[in-house]
Amino acid sequence: MISTSGRVAGASLSVAGHSIYPAFLPIPIICFIGALITDLAYIASADMMWLDFSSWLLLAGLVGGGIAGAVLIIELFMAGRNRTGALMTHFVLLLAAWIVEVFNSFIHTRDGWTAVVPTGVTLSLVAAVLALLAGWFWQSARAGNAGVTR
Amino acid sequence: MNRRTFLAFALLPLAACGSNQELDQASQYGANPVLPAPHEQLIADVGVFETTGWPAGETPTVPAGFRIEAIATGLSNPRNVLALPNGDVLIVESRNEGGEPVQRPKDPIRDWIMARAHSQTKSGEAPGPSNRITLVREANGDGRPGGRSVLVDHLNAPFGIAVLGDFLYVANTDAIVRYPFTGGQTRIEAPGVKLTDLPAGSINHHWTKSLVASPDGSRLFVSVGSNSNAMERGADAEINRAAILEIEPRTGMSSLFASGLRNPNGLTFYPGTNTLWAVINERDELGPDLVPDYMTSVRRGGFYGWPYSYYGQHVDPRVRPQRPDLVADAISPDYALGSHVAPLGLAFYTGSSFPLAFRGGAFVGEHGSWNRTEPHGYKVVFIGFRNARPTGNPRDFVTGFLKDGKARGRPVGVAVDDRGRLLIADDVGSTVWRVSYAGVGSPSVRAS
């Protein structure tokens, strides 16, 4: 049962009292960082297995991130004027990481070295940094919200 | 001015801004093709065409003075054809069952696109029985096809066939199998005996195994295509692949004859020589004008570059680890056919019923491109030979397979029959075509 809760300022979509968003947000962050690591492993070894890992991690991150983003957009609308600057910064960073990884997924379809070097791993690095920053600002947004509701 | 030319002029100002300059096709024919720098797009160019089959009464187009007719229709994926000395024609109907394992997210997408371009039937219709050899016999020697029988059934994705001595050798995708066979036989009841295994396995990407016997009958030569585009399935998947193997027909002993040939097909000895020729499908996804497919004589022990390089020492940027030691010895092939034309059949003209200019020349069945928006191939071309070497540009011989953006057929294997007529297996069109010279008018073939 999906409902909205007013635990934090604004509102969050939740199932049986548990917020949906925190369950999905880690997926893109972890997968995008993972793709960077497997890209580096591919550069070090030239073993195609690592390129395959990167491709699947990018896809998983895009799917998980797509769900998280959809939930976040709804919550931002529901929050209306109550949305905080930190939450908007979080959203923009996450969206930027997601868009970078869409392009990166196409680069990663190439059959070998040029799937990663130089463009692929560069985009993986950019997206991983953006995703980590998005996580950072998510915590700021939560802390800020907690302050408001307290 | 036709519509396409008009469009080209209308878009000229735009084209000048893009980096994707259209290369003159003719610059990629012959011994020294122009090779642009590799250009890996964000999304690989794809140009596949809905398959419709041939409407009743319609045929491919042949030059003036020639006649084309179907000798067998309603076949199930006919891929290859062999003419016997007694006039019988063997047609290899073949379908590789089972998909490749999914390695990356792109694989199911690519498979779906490829399946569209190979589909023989409209959705909903079940395909007919395939993986067999059908024999077609002329009824009264009057040039009209007569009886038809299934010579051998229950094969495993066969492609190459050869008659040598009292045996018919069939190159299934996973093994060469030998059947007792004498000319005139219309049905083989005896079970096949496996001569030797061929590289197949769970991926089996390029699955067609072309087969030919040496002129003295002492050896068989079989082609094995690569398991990937540019070794992206790993080196272990490519053992004895992208190669031509030499096989002793009595014992089945096999050895590597030549390597670095990405997907070789159409194995044929040049008439009157001991020189083996083949047509090769080169690699994809380096841009619409790379890498030209080619026809080449094949040297014993020769290495032709794949996957590390193409056309001699042009290094493929995708393949790691690099092998400069191998690339240093990579042979540049004899004759470029154009990029992505997908040559799958090769036959030298050994007959005498076609005009003199055709004697000793090569017919190449070009299945047609997928990795470029503007189609290449989808026709049978002719290349003249002088002193057993190719000369001049390929000329269109049988065309009309693509029409109004739909594929009515796609040519694959070609052969010359006992009366010097050209036979063409058309897999998408479910037909085997026969081209004869009507002997009237002045024969001409259009430059492509």
Radius of gyration computed on alpha carbons of chain A = 17 Å
Distance between the termini of chain A: 27 Å
The main sheet of chain A comes to:
3 strands, antiparallel
Please, how many domains of chain A?
A: 1
Strand order of the largest sheet of chain A: 1-2-3
Please count the helical segments of chain A: 5
CATH C-level class of chain B is Mainly Beta
Number of helices of chain B: 4
What is the overall shape of chain A? Answer: elongated
**What portion of the residues of chain A fall into strands of 2 or more residues?**
5-15%
Unreliable parts of chain B = 1-19
Number of strands of chain A: 3
Task: Please estimate the helix content of chain A.
Answer: over 70%
Distance between the terminal alpha carbons of chain B, to the nearest Å? 17 Å
Q: Whole-number average pLDDT of chain B?
A: 91
Mean model confidence by pLDDT of chain A:
90
CATH fold group of chain B: Neuraminidase
The SSE order of chain A reads EEEHHHHH
The CATH H-level homologous superfamily of chain B? TolB, C-terminal domain
